[in-house]
Amino acid sequence: xxxxxxxxxxxxxxxxxxxxxxxxxxxxxxxxxxxxxxxxxxxxxxxxxxxxxxxxxxxxxxxxxxxxxxxxxxxxxxxxxxxxxxxxxxxxxxxxxxxxxxxxxxxxxxxxxxxxxxxxxxxxxxxxxxxxxxxxxxxxxxxxxxxxxxxxxxxxxxxxxxxxxxxxxxxxxxxxxxxxxxxxxxxxxxxxxxxxxxxxxxxxxxxxxxxxxxxxxxxxxxxxxxxxxxxxxxxxxxxxxxxxxxxxxxxxxxxxxxxxxxxxxxxxxxxxxxxxxxxxxxxxxxxxxxxxxxxxxxxxxxxxxxxxxxxxxxxxxxxxxxxxxxxxxxxxxxxxxxxxxxxxxxxxxxxxxxxxxxxxxxxxxxxxxxxxxxxxxxxxxxxxxxxxxxxxxxxxxxx
Length: 399
What we know:
Elements: E1 9-12, H1 18-28, E2 32-37, H2 56-59, E3 66-69, H3 75-86, E4 90-93, H4 99-102, H5 107-113, E5 118-123, H6 138-144, H7 165-188, E6 193-197, H8 198-205, H9 207-216, E7 234-237, E8 248-251, H10 256-265, H11 280-285, H12 287-298, H13 303-312, E9 317-319, H14 323-328, H15 330-334, E10 338-343, E11 347-352, H16 375-381, H17 387-395
Parallel strand pairs: 1-2, 1-4, 2-3, 4-5, 5-6
Antiparallel strand pairs: 7-8, 8-9, 10-11
């Protein structure tokens, strides 16, 4: 069965996470992602493990790609890169501000070679605006995009969310832009430049937190694990299921049906059908009593038991899962979100799966490539290079 992005070729200059998360999704969906890397060390994310072996950080963001080693500062390396552009559909990059232009690989140069090419870029602050020259990492994006001021408890400083939403969240935004540009190209015949800044992406994902500013003129205070000050929407301690268990759940009532189901399940039949519970002010006034009743009930059960009982009753509830929990969760396993792979150096490994499920385009997973693993294959298959051409490419010293 064909893949959704069969026939789309991506020339990938991304590194670390923000860009590689984007191109990994494209690879999962069937695009031919050719990762172009510097020949001696490659993507800097490879070396985070030390010891001469690719890090798991690199491995989990670079499955379903082919690696070609090219020195873009050399004449032969640059020629081969432009040959790839000639046969490509998309060029992706998240290099530091100005690097692509200094290499002579700006959009103006790329479209001279291939007017249909889409140049897709991630920058911390974009390529224009007062801060365009500033460098960024995930935590910087989370700070300047609002995520840190939305996270944590009001008595504590702004807090960095533990997951790298600044990187991977931006990468997913770029996927959308790339697909839109490819669709528009079908009618115009021309490519375009697509850009997502990490700050822009985080601000966009902060809209729920931001919206009260429009009505009050003030920023929403941090509320810890509560949802908008709603009682019953919080993290509750549970009975530990093991010595290292994060024994907590988060549950939340949303309407009277959910509130009644919650109260019935935890044994507070006296509150079932209580019309006063429809009044948020009343719930807030009695929040300590409500939360105490929930806590007393969850403390007698493991987090998975709580999630099963409340979930079956129609109450939104989720066990707080750590990394080990995720890899043992029967639901995630059933949905192919834990994928076994055989890496050429690390052997049998597991990686997170693809969250996008398509009935006519199932994902086939391939392990992340070794540095330069597919240089000969791509040069022969895509570019039609002879062995002599390859020998010339190899002879030029790396600069």
